[in-house]
UniProtKB/TrEMBL annotation:
Cross-referenced Pfam families: YceD
Stated name of the protein: YceD family protein
Highest rank taxon of the organism: Bacteria
Amino acid sequence: MTEKHTAAPDATSPWVVDVLRELSRRPGTMKPWVRDVPAPADFGLEVIGVPAGDPIHLDLRLESVVEGVLASGTVSAHVVGECSRCLGEVTDDVEVDVTELYAYPDSVTEETTDEEDVARIVDEKIDLEPAVRDAVLLELPNAPLCSDDCAGVPSPDEEAWAFVPAGSARERIDPRWAALQERFAGGSNTENMQ
């Protein structure tokens, strides 16, 4: 069996919990963990996310279980983005539930699961950021809208296809093909193909 080497969490990070100081290893021990943590850079999708430095509110409960520490509760944050239709600003508040088990080294869970399947306690510390990031990102829309009926970017070209009223048809012929249209207009395509 190969030995797993997981980097220790940065003890100075506001996302890191020192398990020895915050919680005992006795199963059933529970402690509320409520914090406002500054969002790191790139905390979101390409078009919407939590601005760097803005607070992310963590209202969690840390519970000692036989296999490790169970962190559960809610996370809330204010997100800012760009409307996918009109490119205007979109703002929203998200609140998501988080539940993550952090396995003790040499526990049955740690030994029987792949490294990427369960979070680990390393040097008696847990890093909450990856679990919170995953939960928030799954809640964010891939194509945010400023409103459900957003009409999109106003076009200076009244003839643009996106602005053709429903039920009407406009045909714009590329000038390079106009001569062919003139030549074959009025005759059926099957006649001209023979």
